[in-house]
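Researcher: I'd like a structural prediction for the single chain below. Treat it as a standalone chain; there are no partners to consider.
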Amino acid sequence: MHWNQVFDELEKGKLRAANKIDGQWVANREVKQAILDAFKDGENIDCSEMGWQGFVDKGNLPTRKFTPADGVRLVPGGSSVRRGAYVAKGVIIMPPAYINVGAFVDEGSMIDSHALVGSCAQIGKNVHLSAAVQIGGVLEPIGQAPVVLEDDTFVGAGAVIVEGIQVLKGAVIAPGVILSKAVPVYDCVNETLLGRGVAIPENAIVVPGSRPISANLPWAQEMGLSLNCAIIVKYRDSKSDASLELEQFLR
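Model: Treating it as a single chain, here is the predicted structure.
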């Protein structure tokens, strides 16, 4: 299938850059290859032809246009949704925000101001990305699954989730949390180290933390330096769900 056809199917939500198969998120290599092919085939143009004065980009990857029939609320003020991204009905995009090629944003989700949804990122239903949240994109290596946020997850202001990290259904990521393959996740509820680059479990409430620096760096230990980590402090119950009811109401 030519990349142009792939992009049409992506925008309809009929194709995705990753799919959950037997409980595991797996990259759709054909889709990712089509995106890479589109970049190779495209030529830089003066974007004034597309209504953007003073910008230069690939002419075959224009920003998407929406109408009321799409059921998407794209608030004026500098946001963009790139060609090949899917945005479902009921999604709200506050300015300025950016949704990159190959991304999937499902029904009822909120993309707040200064938030980034990177290339091929998968955002589930009723997800809230608060102000300045950064969801990284993963195009290469082609076989690597992108960042995934499953249904009903909540990401607090300024959080950063990159390098294909997966956040499973119902999890809450507190403001300022950084999740990457280098950041270990500690489950203080079950008193275990989950490891680095692991999926955040369903309904986990994750806050930013720190850990002592390695014994291989005695001077750093002497200075009292520490490294970043993520800490699961609780799993959602009826009481913690209630704290998010206002957010649901504001949708």
